[in-house]
Amino acid sequence: MTNNSQRILIRGVNWIGDAVLTIPAIRAVRTAFPNSHITLLVKPWVAGLFHESRDMDEILLYNNSHKGIRGRFKLAGEIRKKKFDTAILLQNAFDAAFITWLAGIPRRIGYKTDGRSLLLTEAVPIDHDIMEQHQVYYYLNLLGAVGIKASETDPYIRLSGSERTWARNLLSSRFPDQSRPLIGINPGAAYGSAKRWPPQRFADLTVKILNELNGRIVIFGGQSDVGVANEILAEINRTAKKINTETYRSHLLMMAGKTGLRELASLIAECDVFLTNDTGPMHMASALQVPVIAIFGSTSPVRTGPFGILHSVVSRNMPCSPCMKRECPEKHLRCMTGINVDEVFTALQEMLPKNKAVFLDKDGTLIEDKNYLKSFDDLVIFHGVKSSLKKLKKSGFKLICVTNQSGIARGIVDRDFVIDSNAFLQKELSLDASYYCPHHPDETCPCRKPEPMMLLKARSEHRINLKSSYVIGDKESDVMLAKNTGARGILISSAPLFADSCADFIANDLHDAVNWILEREQAR
After folding, report:
1. Catalytic positions
2. 8 A C-beta contact, residue 281 and residue 186
């Protein structure tokens, strides 16, 4: 695949969780072929995951009109008209190869599965080792076999500003006190009862969260999970003496069966922790960079657990697990019933955000903006920065630098210098951490401000409560970053052109910004 300008069809997978895990592979195709026209062929129920993605140009639906042999010929005809050069089949089924063969796509790449080798021009054998790794690498391995390498592996679901605003407005209308921790609970599992922690345990945990953490809870699920969610509510009602009636009404929100896929993602993104069985929404939460506590029984957390090291899996190492069965063949479900409420509650306590932070832009905020700083000789810390930051530290804030460094991608700035200069400032200014985005703006990555990835990673790694935090910078992208993550945004500028900024406060300098934060904190 050497031609960088071609028409590429990617056949996606059919289930929500699996579809989330293909996101890094799809991004790798876009990175390898930035000038190509990329179309994603998927079932309608997973298409919503990709609606804000910049990694494809078009989404083609494989819908009910394509059922049966006649429907498949119809779909192949529709695909043929688009004159694709290459098909990449992330789905393993014979059907995927058959349709792209019928459509006459010259190059067809996929795993050698389901008896379809003769329909593929490049049939990739499945290495046994890849089956022992996380499923994310299964899809990336297919691409690697044909020369497409991935530099990033984290799945990421992009949300629009309006989607985030909708979710926050809904939650604020339902929960009067926004300062309390927000825990998402997802008690269902599509694969079968062997993947479900008992509803009674979820009910007992919910009561414990309300009583001991003073938390807010949203119960999630699809239409098929409404029965389980109602069973949990019934159990809570039976033990209502343990919780105040007003607490129940004002701190528990039932959303099972009430959201579409994008609404579900938007609400999950607002959670401080997402507590779940092994389900598609578990992978959505992970891809939204929400800390996840996943309860595993019959399935393998190594293969299908929440992706990344910042999540927590609660499981029992039973001789029979992972059995991968829909129903427990022994009828006792010891892998699930052996997990008690207290250990899940402890995991939740350890993961809840407890710190407030001030996120600081680098060039133009902490140091003089030299238009692509390349040398320590030109690094000048603004006067008064050290004393101002010391005040924030004294008030209990973590200090975290977040900076766009597109000079790396442009070939202007050396990556090692960025790393070294960030380390110098971290030590010199007593910062707690530094994050940087090395990408070119055209790459549409999830970490370049105002995209939220740097703050979301900091939230997980440093247990930051973003809603109690601030972002300070000298560009509108800095205050937009705050808006995208629920933090307060402060713009450093005396220029009148920023009068229509979305900033919560416009400061003359860092000293002015810090004083506003401290005054606001004192008044709370």
Report:
1. 361, 363
2. yes
